[in-house]
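The data are quoted verbatim here:
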Amino acid sequence: MPPTIVLVHGAFAESTSSDRVVERMQASGHRVIAAANPLRGLASDAAAVSDLVHTIDGPVVLVGHCYGGAVISNVDADAGDIVGLVYVAGFAPAPGESCITLIGMFPGSTLGAALRPVLRSDGATDLAIRADRFRDQFAADVPTARSVRMAATQRPIAQEALGAPSGERPLWRERPSWFVFGEQDRIIPAALARYMANRAAARGTIEVPGASHAVSVAHPQATAELILAATAARDAA
């Protein structure tokens, strides 16, 4: 049975942002599930994805973009037959690290200045990227019309989720991983992505020249090929 591919979107995006990757995965014969990441808290978001994995028969490859990478890193290792992790411009935190602390490890991220806070009645704070900054910050190599749609449909993330410390059992220490990221990512600098890939002893790493944070949107073929490499590695094992 070929692995089911579970796509976990990150902050400032939503599940349809990977539609061109979904098309390629389905054409290759894989079942694909684009999970609706709640974006409320790291532990609870990871629990939601773990619950989804519990429902899947057969092997699973988890694919996380941006904050979604932190989420898949915290999925329960016993949730199912998880055979690989693919980080698409994604965070791969070690225990105690948060997305915010990781961003500060290397220069190059301009996310902070692009954010628009939204105070909630429950006392929490949501964060979104300002519409006038979205393309430059998130999707500089995406056609303008699509980047405008992405800005309009982005889902905000709870500030507390980005600052939450990662758990004590990162899944990338127990499962093989692959990383793809953009050379011109303005959220996760390429230097940080390389650091996390090296730390995770990634089996495959692709740095796309000139690519933005929206690497799966602008470069779906490169992203799909890496996911397929992860599924092929499982089949060859």
User: Anything to note?
Assistant: Strands lie at 4-8, 32-35, 59-66, 81-90, 115-119, 125-129, 157-158, 177-182, 204-208.
